[in-house]
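FW: tagging you since you asked about this chain on Friday. Here's the raw sequence from the shared folder, copied in full. Didn't touch anything.
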Amino acid sequence: MPTSVKILKTEKITPNVRHYRLEKPKGYSFGPGQATEVSIDKDGWRDKKRPFTFTSLNDWEELEFTIKSYTDHPGVTAELWGLEAGDRLLLRDVWGTIQYEGPGTFIAGGAGVTPFIAILRQLNAKGGLAGNRLIASNSTEADIILRNEFEAMEGLETLWTVTHDPKTRLEQERIDSAFLKKHISDFSQNFYLCGPDDMVKDLRDALERLGANVNALVWEK
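HL: got it, structure written out here
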């Protein structure tokens, strides 16, 4: 049975990504990296469900989602962009298979970083980020989600690459086999993958060819 919750605050963090802070229902719990199906609680939208990852931690008093809106076509994320405090969303059961299995490299494509946000925030809160690295690919520097927060996390190494920003001083390469060989020396570690389906499949194949243990690859199955 869906639960209706009120939006308490929205905050724009990139040109097309916002934080949504929501009421937290009593007894509602989840783990870092988990998600739920969300819909907009208004006529014509209640049955249009989309999966979004919690970016808050379970001990926060409020829920938070960090959502990219695709405003080039009508849909749930485009409609979300027009919502503000006081509007309502519907939440459902919690699910998800991206869980922390130990130090390793997190590789994200665009909004694929969102399942890693709560995991890295939880590790940061406990002082357990040593040995972890975040590699993220975006179109431009302006599209990097929570760059300042990630760079401020003690013990977390970050590597940003952008594919459509010729003026940047960041890396300007796709994350492919050649990129992985250039920037990773130890393929026996854990790897956490999230992004477009084709990207994740290509990365799984590339990592396995480079010697990564298939059992040490974590992605949303």
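FW: Residues 104-218 form a domain with the Rossmann fold fold (CATH 3.40.50.80).
HL: agreed, and The mean pLDDT is 96.
FW: great, closing this out.
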